Amino acid sequence: VPRAASKVDALMFRALFPAATEALHGACGVLRAAAQQATASEQLSRLLDIVLALGNILNRDKSPAGPAHAAAAAAADRPAYKLGSLTTLAEMKADAKSSSSSATKGSSGGATLLHYLAKTVEAKSPELLTFAASLDTLRDAVVGPSLAHLESTLGDLRTGLGKLETECEACGDESSGGGGDDEAAFAAALASFRVAAADELSHVTQLAAETSSAAARLLTHFGPAPPGTTPDAVLRTLQTFTAAFSKATTDNARAKQKKAAAAERAVAAAATLTSVKE
């Protein structure tokens, strides 16, 4: 059989192509939706403004030259990257002696700046507590294929289709040169798939381009990102923050319930003591 390996590769490509393009459709849709939700979420935008303000207060408090110097430095650094401090909020312990946002990086356990942030949001902007609902595709995007993986898969499909077309053309040339009916039959068997695959690949390429555009907008939406930051990294940062914020909100609610229960026990104990004395 002439070019037996090439023929096997072509048949394998035809067999695997539908599943590969279906996976690309799904992954592109999820990534594009996550990027669009992150850039369109008003709740997330307002919450990040609060985070940025909290960071500015911290920088001002830490500035050795006082608030004026810190304000000037902050102005010089604008526009700030709004996601820059998200990963440290859960690591910075809130000052237990003050309701201010001063903090030190502490060990695990205890209230962190993220708990302070959640408490502040609950008190002043409770409508922002549900911001995660506006990012409901975020988790799927983070656990799914990365943008780089999608582009790599798309490249593999282009290469595979190119090899299949080359084999089909070689079969046609050999058949017209008197090489036998088998070559013509093989090319004919793949003819309709060849056309359909080219159309589908063009469609998936367009979807990937739209996804890349949405990812590019995401990368610049929150301010100038550090060099080397990728859209996938932005999505991971947002997902980590979303999960951590949810946990901090739950922790605060439990602490509030625990404090209320302790107060009730104290009142009951005081009432019992008064009754005994009487």
TrEMBL record:
InterPro entries in the record: FH2_Formin, FH2_Formin_sf, Formin_Homology
Organism whose genome encodes this protein: Mantoniella antarctica
Top-level taxonomic group: Eukaryota
A Pfam family recorded for this sequence: FH2
Protein name, entry field: FH2 domain-containing protein
UniProt domain FH2: residue ranges: 1-271
